[in-house]
C-alpha cells in the first residue's frame, strides 16, 4: 500500500478551487500551446508572414504577443500565489533570500539566453525561416541545454518561495 499522507498534506496547502489558481494554470498551459501552434502553422503555411508582408515583421509581431502573454501569465501567477495558503514554518528570511537567489540565477539564464539568441532566435524565428548562422554554444548554452526554460522555471520557483 502507498502512504498518501504526504500528498494529502501537500494538497492541504493548495486550493485548486480558487479562481486565481485556475486562471493561472490555464494561462501557464495556454502560452506555450499558443506559440507552438502558431509557430508550426507558420512553418507549414507561411500565412502569418503573408499577412504581415514579411517573415521578420511576422516574427517580431509574434514575439510581442508572446511577451504580452508572458506578462499576463506572470500577473495571474502572482495573484494565484497571493490567494494560496502559506506553508507554516517557511515564513523566514532564509526562505525569502533563497527565493531571491534562485530567481536571480533564473534571470541570469533567461537574459543571457536572450542576448545569445537575439530576438528572432528567442521568439521562433526558425519557424519563420530566420535561421542563425550556427548553433549557439556560448554561455549559458555551454552549461545547460535549455537555459531559457530552466531560467524561467527558476524564476517562478524563486518567486513562489519569496
What would you note in describing this structure?
The protein has 162 residues and is an all-alpha fold. The protein has one domain (4-161). It is built from six helices and no strands. The protein is globular. The mean pLDDT is 92. GO terms for molecular function: phosphatidyl-N-methylethanolamine N-methyltransferase activity; phosphatidylethanolamine N-methyltransferase activity. The chain crosses the membrane at residues 20-37, 57-75, 95-125.
Task: Write a concise synopsis of the structure shown.
By secondary structure, the protein is mainly α.
Please describe the structure with a list of short key phrases separated by commas or semicolons.
endoplasmic reticulum, 162 residues, mainly alpha, single chain, Phosphatidylethanolamine N-methyltransferase, 6 helices
How much is the radius of gyration in Å?
Answer: 19 Å
Let me know the largest β-sheet. Answer: none
The total tally of domains equals 1
Name the average pLDDT. 92
Helix content: over 70%
Number of strands: 0
Query: Hey, roughly how much beta strand do the residues contain?
Result: under 5%
Based on CA inertia axes, which overall geometry fits?
globular
Could you spell the SSE succession in H and E letters? HHHHHH
Number of DSSP helical runs: 6
Low-pLDDT residue intervals, each spanning 5 or more residues: none
What gap, in angstroms, lies between the N and C termini? 36 Å
Oligomer: single chain
Structural class: mainly alpha
Pathway: Lipid metabolism; Phospholipid metabolism; phosphatidylcholine biosynthesis
Transmembrane segments: 20-37, 57-75, 95-125
GO molecular function, one term: phosphatidyl-N-methylethanolamine N-methyltransferase activity
Organism: Certhia brachydactyla
Amino acid at each position: 500500500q502507498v502512504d498518501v499522507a504526504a500528498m494529502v498534506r501537500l494538497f492541504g496547502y493548495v486550493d485548486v478551487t480558487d479562481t486565481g489558481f485556475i486562471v493561472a494554470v490555464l494561462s501557464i498551459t495556454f502560452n506555450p500551446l499558443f506559440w507552438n501552434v502558431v509557430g508550426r502553422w507558420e512553418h507549414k503555411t507561411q500565412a502569418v508572414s503573408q499577412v504581415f508582408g514579411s517573415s521578420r515583421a511576422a516574427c517580431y509581431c509574434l514575439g510581442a504577443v508572446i511577451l504580452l502573454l508572458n506578462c499576463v501569465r506572470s500577473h495571474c501567477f502572482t495573484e494565484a500565489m497571493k490567494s494560496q495558503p502559506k506553508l507554516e514554518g517557511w515564513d523566514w528570511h532564509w526562505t525569502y533570500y533563497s527565493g531571491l537567489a534562485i530567481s536571480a540565477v533564473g534571470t541570469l539564464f533567461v537574459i543571457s539566453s536572450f542576448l545569445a539568441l537575439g530576438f528572432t532566435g528567442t521568439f521562433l524565428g526558425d519557424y519563420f525561416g530566420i535561421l542563425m548562422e550556427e548553433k549557439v554554444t556560448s554561455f549559458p548554452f555551454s552549461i545547460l541545454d535549455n537555459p531559457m526554460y530552466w531560467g524561467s522555471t527558476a524564476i517562478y520557483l524563486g518567486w513562489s518561495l519569496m
